[in-house]
Amino acid sequence: MSELFDLTGKTALVTGGGRGIGRAIATELAAAGAAVVPSARSTDEIEAVADEIDAAGGDALAVPADVTDPDAVTNAIDRTEDTFGSVDIVVNNAGFNPDSALGQPEDVSTDDLERVLAVNLSGAYEVTRAAADGLEDTGGSVINVASVGGLVGLPRQHPYVASKHGLVGLTKSLSLDWAPEVRVNAVAPGYVSTDLTEDLEGNERLRQSILERTPLERFAEPEEIAGPVVFLASDAASYVTGSVLAADGGWTAR
């Protein structure tokens, strides 16, 4: 069974790979044997992740890229292929949910809506499209990091929820067009303990409301999202495509 999870000889590009969930995904893919390219706008963060992977005996290359810039995306794919020979796994993890995009719909600007959609949805589309030829050649795998907000509604997070619902739809439609050569799946995390949720966890009222809604009664650790990603990237999921794996502590079971 362990051989099914072995990613030796594969190369994975992880967007938003410098911290939090993306960092955990990058290091766990490397631990499973893949060469990993963490990518993000912040060079310092992705270089630290690459150094961590190298120090553990893996292979990594930090490639800065903004997923909203098609030229930067193409460069990231080209550098990955030039260095490692192929792109076998694409993990679309880049995303954000800025404070300015939170609130009642009449209070959120069109600019904020478009900024969130550009990163969370259009960015994933650009990266996946740029990697298409290589993925089809190698029989690769795409894993989109969605959210419980892509499966259910969340109050006061309309641009984010729209972007993640769109990402779930994109996952399903791509899986149809690219089968049988390429598998396309998504992971839908619940609330995860990262630096982006520190303020949320520090607000006792909000924290308790989330825990009461979560059957496992806690936030996830980033590594608990990385595990499902490794599964979907591996031969253990060789008959899985077009699926959304909810890693949400039971949030969507209610």
UniProtKB/TrEMBL annotation:
NCBIfam families: PRK07231.1 (NF005559). PANTHER family: 3-OXOACYL-[ACYL-CARRIER-PROTEIN] REDUCTASE (PTHR42760:SF133), SHORT-CHAIN DEHYDROGENASES/REDUCTASES FAMILY MEMBER (PTHR42760). SMART domains: PKS_KR (SM00822). Its EC number is 1.1.1.47. This is Glucose 1-dehydrogenase. Belongs to the short-chain dehydrogenases/reductases (SDR) family. The lineage of its organism: Archaea, Methanobacteriati, Methanobacteriota, Stenosarchaea group, Halobacteria. Residues 10-185 form the Ketoreductase domain. Pfam families: adh_short_C2 (PF13561). GO terms for molecular function: glucose 1-dehydrogenase [NAD(P)+] activity. The keyword Oxidoreductase applies. It comes from the Archaea. Keywords: Oxidoreductase. SUPFAM superfamilies: NAD(P)-binding Rossmann-fold domains.
